[in-house]
Amino acid sequence: MPSFSLQSNRIMKIKIGAKEYPIRMTTGAIVRFKRETGKSVEELDNVKDFESSMRFIYECMASACRADDVDLPIDFEKFLDSLDLSRVGEIQEALFEASKGNGNEDEPQKKSK
To answer: Fewest beta carbons less than 10 Å away: which of 22, 35, 67, 113?
Structure first.
């Protein structure tokens, strides 16, 4: 059963079988997700389109592996069969949070009066 870990330095890994693989949101993952699904990342909705959410997580893992020169012998179907359903939301949330850096760069600064 795969496990997911977020290390203190925001390096995320997903464990499938006995091997850990890096996972993070990259430009390549976003582009390949769009090519595969025809949707932008902003259109992701776990409830309405579960398969697209899974595709996005897989593309993040595959892209991080390519970037880090880590062999990924797992195709999308094997990934689906290996991932624990209870962890999907946690993984996706962690990917989006990590892509924001400390989590508040996109928030407008409030001005005091």
So the answer is: 113
The tens-digit pLDDT sequence of the chain (113 residues) is 455 554 444 678 988 888 999 999 999 999 999 999 999 988 877 657 888 888 999 999 999 999 999 999 999 999 999 887 777 778 888 887 877 764 433 333 334 44
What residues does 13 pair with on adjacent strands?
A: 5, 22
Helix H or strand E encompassing 6? strand 3-6
Q: CA 19, 24, 27, 29 torsion: positive or negative?
A: positive
Q: Enumerate the domain spans of the chain.
A: 3-99
Q: d(Cα 46, Cα 66) in Å, to the nearest integer? A: 25
